[in-house]
Amino acid sequence: MIFRSKHRRLFCFCLGVLGLSLSIASATPVKATLPAAPTPIVAQSLSHLDQGRKLYQSGRFGDAIAAWQTAAQDYRIKGDRLNEALSLSYLSLAQQELSQWNEATKSIGQSIALLKGAKPGADAILWAQVLNTQASLLLHTGKAEAALESWKQAQTYYEKANDTTGSLGTQINQAQALQSLGYYRRAKQQLSDINQRLAKLPNSDIKVSGLRTLGITLQMIGDSTKSQEVLEQSLAIAKELKLNSEISAILAGLGKTAIDLDDPEAALSYFEQSEQAAITPIEQLQAKLDRFRLLVDYDLLDKAAPLAPQLLSQLQQLPPSRTSMYAAINFSASLNSLEDPIVPLSEVSKLLEKTVQAAKTIQDPRAEAYALNQWGKLYGRTEQWKEAEIVTTRSLEIARQFQSDDIIAQSAWQMGRLYLEQGKTKNAIAPYTEAVKSLRAIRGDLAAINSDVQFSFRESVEPVYREFVALLLEGQPGQAELAQARELIESLQVAELDNFFREACLDKTQQIDQVDSTATVVYPIILPDRLAVILSTAGQPLQYHITRKPQAEIEETLDQLLSALNPVSDFRDRDRLSQQVYDWLIRPAESSFNNTKTLVFVLDGKLRNIPMSALYDGKQYLIEKYAVTLSPGLQLMAAKSLQQTQVGALVGGISESRSGFAALPAVETEVKQIINTVPGSKLLNSEFTGDALADRIKNSQANVVHLATHGQFSSRLEDTFLLTWDGKVNIKELSELLQSRDASRAIDLLVLSACDTASGDDRAVLGLAGLAVRSGARSTLATLWPVKDKAAALLMTQFYEELRKPDRTKAEALRQAQLKLIRETDFRDPFFWSGFVMVGNWK
Q1: Separation of CA 324 from chain center
Q2: Residue 669: helix, strand or coil by DSSP?
């Protein structure tokens, strides 16, 4: 079967409470199975407690809340502090599921107060459960550091009670808290230690469950390769022990990991096996739904179509529960993504109506809002505008009531689209504004959105910004509209980086006109029917021009130009295509560049792959007239010019063949020449290990870090790395290393002189921008493709010589080094010098 992806979605995890389980999202903690209650005093209270447990495990959280409130009240009357504390802890869990954060905080606070007032030696398992619940709440409400401490305490109690399962679960939770705090290497080490502990355990159901949870957690933090390895171990042991209740869920986890690893054929096989291994109707339905979504996402509609009626029939017959509701919502979302229906839309409408009613019945307002959102989308498809507006408005009202920004963003966006489709352009501005505001509010939580609901950046975030920009730039936009559009383009850049890292990554910023009054910022954005360009120069009105061409034609030209930059191509084709892009971006506004010395490009889409310095006006390259730099937007890290401080460099590199990567003979010369040019220390070949690099970065005073080694930038977090002598350092590990020093010793310049962008990845430069922003380095100089190492050595040596000159900015130092290659060497072809790009603060 051939898979050609038009898009990829985040797949949801729908696991029951079996041993160790997951409940909501990527930053969602593992929750131990609800423990048995201490010995009860009143039989009726036990009934309420047990009833709440059953309701909770079936996803009926509203009813569980009512049962546990009654249980807590009964225990209070009877003076049973321990059972009252347990009931309140359960109550907080259910309230968290319904995003009732204030109520959940009150309940867990009362539970802890009761335990503190109980007799010494209160049940260790009870303390562990209560602390686990508290930590879950703290993480969800943005208090990761406090959550970490609470889980450490919970671990102590679980170990005191000899509860291996609970102890492992809290340690996995601690890794997630460390990840949220930005301690990626510590989180990874924590998970590695857990894996080693699990390996030493005899094969058992606890080991299988622990490995499964560990595998899913690894996938959530972006280590999909290790996730696959751990899940395969879990599967092998489960099969050996014939733990049929675990096998289907493990196979489903492997399917989702395979999707992350861009292996849809393996994913399909895993989902099929998951369905065959399922021992409950719900598991079977979930596996079939995973398979259906995969086929829809890869446009294999001939394979997906036969499954749709089966799924529709099964979903219509299921009783109300959280699992059945979200299965119906996801199924409807898949159908709504198709241009042509493969089941009668009237039947889908009935299913969504039933889901809305079910959500009301079991008191799950978020599920109700999600279902109403999909129902509104369905009405919009059939041009039932009035009905679409009514149900979408209701979805918005519920989402606003519970401050659910993820749902607000989707439903407000949908309302804006409904207005646009009816030609009500002015009416659309308010809902689009609300949608963007909500997306900004959730920023780093985009990957932590309720994983019961399909959600992807490419489908659910990026289009909101692009459509709003297009709306603002219709006709003849004024300065207010241009300023708002510019801000949206910047916000889209930041949102892309947040999505890349799966957390918010850009905080300390300053406006560009505070950085350089002689710079002009160029904001191109590729819209479906045009290329729009906004230009910003300090102290001047914003400028704007457009090129009316279809997006496909613009992107085809950019692809051709990128290919033509290869030195074996015909230079006449290169110059012609380069001049075409120059005419789109620069020529219409160049007459106003009187005082401009630096052009700063905030690039969009496939423009990111094109080196702006190589744009050609028919006589000169752009770099011959201006210094050129890239930026994620006006929001730049503050920086001093390097001339204001003594330049000190840490220079590392690998010149020999290593780990399957080719030798880079000139790297040894490059490293030695740089050390001779600027004071510093070096790590060459076998010295350049991950630990040595970490130690040198942490303890040296160098404000420049120069790494001449193989590396790759990709739009996939796990495929962006640098090569060390003993392995690979991924982007999060490198970012953490670079930020390990205090602010007074922040790195001014990070140089990566031998990197490449992932083959066939149109968004690979996102990895470069991500590293530039996340590293904490104020500026990053890197290569878009591998350059002949002799050319790289010449350019780098000249760059450092230029950098030492008075009043020389980093961007100008790079420009002069590139001009030297153009005018004084055999490397005058743009291929050899234009791949070097400066990202971030160019001063």
Answers
A1: 27
A2: helix
Residues 6+ apart with CB under 8 A from 387: 379
Q: Which two tokens stand for residue 370?
A: 């999600």
- Do residues 488 and 436 touch, judged by C-beta distance below 8 A? yes
Find out whether 413 and 397 touch, Cβ atoms under 8 Å.
no
pTM: 0.82
Tokens of 578: 């380069």
Sign of the CA dihedral running 490, 496, 499, 503: negative
Tokens 């130092």 — which residue?
813
654 neighbors 664 (Cβ within 8 angstroms): yes
CA-nearest of 455, 446, 414, 447 to 432 is 414
Burial of 436 (0-12, 13-18, 19+ CB in 10 A): buried
Predicted confidence (pLDDT) per residue in 343-380, tens digit: 999 999 999 999 999 999 888 898 999 999 999 999 99
| 779 Cβ contact list (under 8 Å, min separation 6) | 639, 748, 749, 750, 772, 810, 838, 839, 840, 841, 842
Q: Provide CB contacts within 8 A for 782, sequence distance 6+.
A: 713, 751, 752, 753, 755, 768, 771, 772, 836, 837, 839
d(CA 681, CA 718): 30
Average pLDDT rounded to a whole number, residues 142-152: 89
| Phi and psi angles of residue 832, each rounded to the nearest 5 degrees, phi first | -85, -25
Residue 451 has pLDDT above 60, yes or no: no
CA dihedral defined by 371, 373, 376, 380, rounded to 10 degrees? -130
CB 84 within 8 A of CB 75: yes
Q: How far apart are CA 146 and CA 164, in angstroms?
A: 23
Lowest mean pLDDT among 181-185, 583-587, 786-790: 181-185
Distance separating alpha carbons of residues 628 and 599, to the nearest angstrom: 5
In tens, the pLDDT along 517-532 reads 899 999 999 999 999 9
Distance between alpha carbon 778 and the CA centroid of its chain, in Å? 22
Residue holding tokens 């975030």? 461
Q: What gap in Å lies between CA 409 and CA 450, rounded to an integer?
A: 14
Using DSSP bridges, classify how beta strands 530-537 and 543-547 pair: parallel, antiparallel or unpaired: antiparallel
Angle 548-553-555 (CA atoms, 0-180°, nearest 5)? 110
With tokens 């210094």, the residue in question is 627
> Residue 747's pLDDT band (boundaries 50, 70, 90)?
confident
Chain length of the chain: 843
Six-digit token string for 214: 């560990």
Q: DSSP letter string over 196-245?
A: HHHHHSPSSHHHHHHHHHHHHHHHHTT-HHHHHHHHHHHHHHHHHTT-HH
Spatial contact of 786 and 757, defined as CB atoms under 8 Å apart = no
What single string gives the DSSP state of each residue in 312-381? HHHHHHSPS-HHHHHHHHHHHHHHHT-SS-SS-HHHHHHHHHHHHHHHHHTT-HHHHHHHHHHHHHHHHH
Q: What is the pLDDT of residues 33-57, one digit of tens each?
A: 444 444 333 334 447 888 999 888 8
User: Which position has the token pair 């730049």?
Assistant: 636
733 band by pLDDT with thresholds 50, 70 and 90? confident
Distance CA 693, CA 737 (A): 8
- In one letter, which amino acid is 708? A
Closest by CA to 334, choosing from 380, 301, 357, 367, is 301
Section 461-473 average pLDDT: 94
Q: How far apart are CA 495 and CA 440, in angstroms?
A: 8
Round the average pLDDT of the chain to a whole number and report it: 86
State how far the Cα of 218 lies from the Cα of 257, in Å rounded to an integer.
10
Q: Two tokens at 702?
A: 């160098």
Query: Do 802 and 813 contact (CB within 8 A), yes or no?
Result: yes
Per-residue pLDDT reduced to its tens digit, 423-440 = 999 999 999 999 999 988
Angstrom distance (rounded) from CA 300 to CA 768? 33
Provide the pLDDT for residue 12: 32
